[in-house]
Amino acid sequence: MSDTPLYQPLGGNDMPRFGGIATMMRLPHVTSSAELDACFVGVPFDLGTSNRSGTRFGPRQIRSESVLLRPYNMATRAAPFDALRVADIGDVAINPYNLLDSIKLIEAAYDGIVSSGCRPISLGGDHTIALPILRALHRKYGKIGLIHVDAHADVNDTMFGEKIAHGTPFRRAVEEGLLDCQRVVQIGLRGTGYTAEDFDWCRDQGFKVVQVEDCWNKSLTPLMEEVRARVAGGPVYLSFDIDGIDPAYAPGTGTPEIAGLTVPQALEIIRGAWGLDIVGADLVEVSPPYDPIGTTALLGANLAYEMLCVLPGVPRR
């Protein structure tokens, strides 16, 4: 790339954390990803939700809570801002009156973001946004491997007769040939289903499905060794629905399910993706109206930062 300087988050000793402009981690806001290695981008979209709306406010509150983050990861010693050009490129301007038009707008925006090789970390927004993002990534990289953390499989054929909603993106992605199905892992699935076979469709496609009961009361570090071996060898997308985490820790979401993953397990999953060719990631389904204190958004901000820390080219000090 060019000689564009490395950006650093605005420090808490330079501006109080309650002051300044609330970009992600108080990074500079730039209008183009052309000179960036990675970017944070908001997608304030919730037209695909099936229960509680409000994820359109997710990117804004995640950014607000991200002021507490600092540049260096003290657990992994990752130092993303020492090597990658990273900035906040703002939000995709969706159409709040038209779901299908919004999908087209998101897809076009991500075509532009990934064209230069920039790796987007997306702040949702509901999980519908994964479909247009995967379409853009597929045009750039070909078939994509996927690590999908969620309470739900999101492989419904339709919802109220509609083919595109937050419960359908990965069914559409399979049908459209966007995914390398042998390199897809779903972690944390749980709850009740419309049929007893709801998760079997995923297995029939070749996905590895790790239901939450297989995660209870244990470290997920050994699991992630298996996941890395399975999804390695090509581009990988990390899609993290905040409802994958137990609602005791993340109540601010539209479709909460009991008995979910813990926060340490979420960190083990993301940190366990280190070494993969991650071409993009998302953190979706944060719904601020259901957690006005901001705990869910704070967690989302931290998870998005952890995603940045496992991108290719990030050094460890």
TrEMBL record:
A Pfam family that this protein carries is Arginase
Keyword Lipid metabolism, does the record have it?
Answer: no
Q: Name one GO molecular function term.
A: metal ion binding
CDD domains with a match to the protein in the record:
Agmatinase_PAH
What sort of enzyme, by top EC class, is this?
hydrolase
Starting at the broadest rank, the lineage of the source organism is: Bacteria, Pseudomonadati, Pseudomonadota, Betaproteobacteria, Burkholderiales
What is the protein's species of origin? Collimonas arenae
Keywords recorded for this protein, A-Z:
Hydrolase, Manganese, Metal-binding
User: How many cofactors are bound and how?
Assistant: Binds 2 manganese ions per subunit.
Which gene carries the instructions for this protein?
A: speB
Q: Which InterPro entries match?
A: Agmatinase-rel, Ureohydrolase, Ureohydrolase_dom_sf, Ureohydrolase_Mn_BS
The cofactor required is: Mn(2+)
So where does Mn(2+) get bound?
Answer: H127, D150, H152, D154, D241, D243
This enzyme's EC code(s): 3.5.3.11
Q: Name one GO biological process term.
A: putrescine biosynthetic process from arginine, via agmatine
Q: Which protein are we looking at? A: Agmatinase
| Family per similarity comment | Belongs to the arginase family. Agmatinase subfamily.
